[in-house]
Structure formats: structure tokens, C-alpha cells
Amino acid sequence: MIRPLPRSLDPLPGESLAGFILRLSYRLGLPPTAVNRRTGLMDIMNNGQAWAKTAWSTGLPPVLAAAFAAATRLSPQEVTALTLEPLVRHYPAIGKVLRAEHERRPRALLWLYSSTSRYCPQCLRGDGSFVQRELGGPWHVLWRLPVVFACTRHRCFLNHLCPGCSQAIGAKHYSHLIARSSVPGLHPAQCRTPSPTRRTPHTRDLCGTRLDQAPALMPLSPPQTYLDLQQRILQKLDPLQPPETSARYFAELQLTCMLVTLTWPAAHTAANDPLAQEASRFLAARRSTNNSEGRPTIAHAPPIDAAACAALLHAADAIITAPDLRAAFTPLEAPRDPLGPSMALPPKYFLWKHHCAGRKAECSPAFQQVVTALTSRLRRTNKGEQHSSGQLERSLAK
Questions:
Q1: By the 8 A CB rule, do 210 and 189 touch?
Q2: Are the beta carbons of 331 and 270 closer than 8 angstroms?
Q3: For a disulfide at 179, which of 112, 192, 390, 396, Cβ 3.0-4.6 Å?
Q4: Pairing between strand 43-44 and 50-51?
Q5: What are phi and psi of 155, to 5 degrees?
Q6: Which of 235, 321, 220 lies closest to 275 in space, CA to CA?
Q7: Is residue 336 within 8 Å of residue 328, measured between CB atoms?
Q8: Do the Cβ atoms of 145 and 207 come closer than 8 Å?
Q9: Angle (nearest 5°) at CA 49 between 141 and 4
Q10: pLDDT (tens digit, 9 = 90+) per residue, 260-314?
Q11: What is the phi/psi pair of residue 315, to 5°?
Q12: What share of the chain has pLDDT > 70, as a percent?
């Protein structure tokens, strides 16, 4: 039976479900696991383990939402605001994940949850009020979205590494709502990554660095063009904006960003990206790592590094907002055979064609026409050869 907790908190503007639980558990002196259990968020997995899963950040089922509201004394509207559910009609990946919750890891997750949480140190520091001095500022619900790469309030790129252990925040607990939630006593802004000097399994010796206080945390200030792009993206994520326009923009942005990644650095010239070197370094390192380990480059996964991700998104945005959409796509077009239109092409173009085929209906008529023009002449690499999406992805590293 779910009973009200002895004390609760008022959610902060834009706060995530995980951030609210971190602050509440710290106030109550309980580990986040205890709060998850007493609010009904614990989920029993096939292996018998119980933990609150990341999917609850997208939206809580009605039964869980009612239980959480009763335990924390929040209104249903306040509980919904802690999740991404208010944006379900604006950001296509949210609806895809909610409809495919039974799948282990739907591909839409790659454009919904970054593999680790980004953060702004100054936001975590709080606004100076008594509550935020004691419990810290908000972990914003939008920080997990790959399209949110900068804090426009503090004019800085978001960070994803801990300055103490130099590891990504919570990256090894991708499916968990809160990483290592059974460990008590940590401030909401402390790093929950195990210390790299300890190799003991299930160790509770966590890094513990305060992400809101370390002086080395100050990220670089992005150019104004990136701040403008981030502001436009945040406006499209505003629930008061027309959902059809926002959903169309994000569908086109994601498909274009995928082609930009597959054909990089062709988009550098097309978009005149001032931080193209950041994206080039990231993609070169990822391809080198994947090739050495025998795994393909997952082209549809955006970079977790905020600067590299911003560069790719900036290039994609410059293409889809260009006055002449067809001309903007020309540098990314597959090479043409002077002797005929049906030359054998690299598998990466077929992978992009495969994704576009399933999502063209989400895009504008002009974008659909460009996609049709770019993909209509593509044929299989060898006559009679069939390519499944998995085969295409495994071919990307070649």
C-alpha cells in the first residue's frame, strides 16, 4: 500500500523525475531506492532485480502516476510535468518509446535518452534560495534529450563528464532512472560513478565529486549561432507551440543529422559549421574504436559530447532551413556514375534510405520530394543481394 511520505518537496521549474527523487531522498535521509519503493516506482525485472527504470522519465502509467502523486503529495499535473509526456506530440521519439515500451531498447531511444545525463554546473548550484542552497538546483528534464546541448541561461555547453573521475555521469546505468540508487547520503549534485581506482564488484565507493562546485567544471561558451539554434529548439519543445510544426521539424532534423553523420565532412562545406573540428574528432575516434573492436558505427546515435553534437545538429539545421532545400542537400548526395545512374553505392546510403522510408510521412512535402530525388536511383550493391537493416548497420564500418 502506498502511503504519503513524512515530508515532500515542491518541484522546481523544469525539474526531471530523477532530479526530484534525488532531492527528496536527500531531504528524507533515505537512499533513492527507498523513495522509489515507497512511491511505487520499483520495477521487478526478469533477473529478479528491482529498480526504477529510465522509461518512467518519458511518462508514468496512470496507476504509477497516481501512486507517486499520493506518496509525494503532488498534483497529477505536477507529476506529469516531471516527465517528457507533455511533449509527446512535439517530439516524435517520445511517442515511439511510449508505444514500444515492451521492446528492450527501441531505436527511438537513441534520440530520446543520451547514454548519460548532461548538466550545467551553475543550474545545479541553484538560485541561492534556502531550499536550493540545501538541496541543490534542478536536474532539468530536457537535459537527457540529445537536441539539448547548451544552457541558454548561463550561455555554456552542457557537460557530461565528472571533473573528479573524468567518467561520464551514470553511463553504465543507462536503463536505470538513477544510477546506483541504493547508495545513501549523497547530495543530489554528487557524482554516483564508482571510483576508477576501485575494481571490487558492487562497490559502494563512489566518486562523490560535487558537480556544482568544482572550478574545473566551467564549460566553454558556445558561439552565438549555437545559442540561437538551441533557443529555437527549446521554443519548438514548448508545449504551447503547434505540435505538428515541432514534430515535423524534429523528424527532418533527425533524418538529416543521420545523413550528415554518414557523409561527414561533406556537410562542413554545406553548413559552414564553425565547430566542425569537434564533430570530426568525435567521428574519427568513434570509427576508429568501433573498427578496432569489430563493431559498426551506429550512425543514428548522436554524440554525447555537447560540442560535437551541436556541430552536427547545426549542420543539419542549416540544411533543412535553407531557402533551396534541394541545393542544400547536394553536397551530401551519393556520387553519380558518369556512365549510368545505377552504379554500386556504399551501404551507408541504403541505410539512410531505409530509415527515410519509414519516416517520410512525418516530414513536410518538400522534404519528402528531396528524399525521393536523392534515394530513387539507389540500388543494391550487388545484383540480387538483399540488405536487412542489421546487415546495413554492420556494413557501416567498411
A1: yes
A2: yes
A3: 192
A4: antiparallel
A5: 55, 55
A6: 220
A7: no
A8: no
A9: 55
A10: 888 888 777 655 666 777 788 877 776 665 554 444 444 567 888 899 899 999 9
A11: -65, -45
A12: 75
Q: How far apart are CA 372 and CA 361, in angstroms?
A: 12
C-alpha cell at 171: 553511463
User: Alpha-carbon distance 340 to 344, whole Å?
Assistant: 11
Q: How far apart are CA 5 and CA 66, in angstroms?
A: 14
200: which 3 cell numbers? Answer: 571490487
Cα 320-325-328 angle, rounded to 5 deg: 85
Q: What integer pLDDT is reported at residue 262 of this predicted model?
A: 83
- Output the nine-digit C-alpha cell for 350: 541504403
State how far the Cα of 32 lies from the Cα of 78, in Å rounded to an integer.
19
Give residues with Cβ within 8 angstroms of 141, minimum separation 6. Answer: 14, 15, 16, 17, 19, 57, 82, 83, 84
Q: Which amino acid is at 3?
A: R
Q: Are 11 and 82 in contact (CB under 8 A)?
A: yes
Q: Are 329 and 384 in contact (CB under 8 A)?
A: no
* pLDDT tens readout for residues 362-386: 999 999 999 888 877 665 544 444 4
Question: For residue 356, which amino acid is it?
Answer: C
Instruction: List pLDDT tens digits, range 145-199.
Output: 999 999 999 999 999 999 988 888 876 666 788 888 888 899 999 999 887 665 5
Q: How far apart are alpha carbons 199 and 376 in whole angstroms?
A: 53
**What pLDDT does 116 receive?**
79
What is the full DSSP assignment across 167-215? Answer: -BTTGGGTTBSSTTTT--S--TTB--SBPTT---TT---B---BTTT-G
348's enclosing H/E stretch is helix 347-359
Range name among 38-47, 105-114, 119-128, 302-311 with the lowest pLDDT average: 105-114
Q: Which residues contact 99 (CB under 8 A, 6 or more apart)?
A: none
Helix, strand, coil shares of the chain, percent, nearest 5, are 50, 5, 45
Contact 316, 260 (CB under 8 A): yes
How many Cα atoms sit within 13 Å of 228 on the Cβ side?
A: 6
Residue 164 · residue 197 · CB < 8 Å = no
The three-point CA angle 103-108-111 to 5° equals: 140
